Amino acid sequence: MSAPIAPIAPISPRILEQAAAWLVQLHSGAAGDAERAACARWVGQDPEHARAWERAEALMNQLGGLPPALARPVLGRPASGARRKALAGAAGLLVLLPAGWLGWRMSAPAHRTGSGERRELLLADGSRVTLNSGSAIDVHFDSAERLVLLREGEILVSTAPDQAGARRPFRVASAHGRMQALGTRFTVRAHASRTEVAVLDGAVRIEPAHGAALTLRAGQQTSFSAGAAAAAADTVDAAAWTRGMLLADKMPLAELLAELARYRGGVLRCDPALAALPVSGAFPVGNPRETERALAMLAATYRLQVHTRLGGWWTTLVPAKKEM
């Protein structure tokens, strides 16, 4: 018979209150290096302080960037309505297995955006993550690392120094491997067979699950599978989507429509004869109304017609009829 698992010892309510107070102070907008250093000293004074800070960060992240003061009622043990409501948002918190990613898609993500929705999260360490349309992430901070799990879609990450002063690495994980931020801003997009990364500032170390590591510098991008990363290439405004724009440079029309479809419901396609038509330009995206403007621009520029059926749910681009 296996030995019973020892219950996790409760943390003193007083220490939990102190951890919550540090969160409030560090995210008040007025905290500086002195306050962050003081928090780091407090965390390092006692292992219970470190446990409380780890819990506070996790709950802050699961609350999706809400004001840290709202975390106060849920840091302690007493069961209350406010605590139960806040803890419900933490149900999807995942723990990354050291051996790989088995089962990482089995529970619901903590943060998700719908079609045509963008959302910015303020994480417990002061870092920011912007989710593009149709994206999903989990956030897991512990004593060893700060981790964002990208389930699907696309994100922009702007890292901040570790608020606790512990110098924990900031990593993003996808189904194909990990990316470690080296003081940076970067975008990550998950596809079924690969992950795309573009570095805007700083550098990012890419570690495919089963391949050699690669470091990208500002202005570079690449894609990688679980087995290998492609050579670095120059990037062109990889974060245009955060401003509601889609940039195309001789992009096949079918590929462009697939991008636009991420921001609207229904089916968006083109006549097979137009699939390879090279398209260039800057097109508005972000919600269905903006994608309608983009389709109108395509029709006017490339002499196309937009045919809609089923109340606009099924949209097809076809060659414009020749004038007689």
Automatic annotation (TrEMBL):
InterPro entries the record matches: FecR (IPR006860), FecR_N (IPR032623), Ferrdict_sens_TM (IPR012373)
Domain FecR protein: 111-205
Single GO MF descriptor: sigma factor antagonist activity
Domain FecR N-terminal: 17-59
Top-rank taxon: Bacteria
Full protein name: DUF4880 domain-containing protein
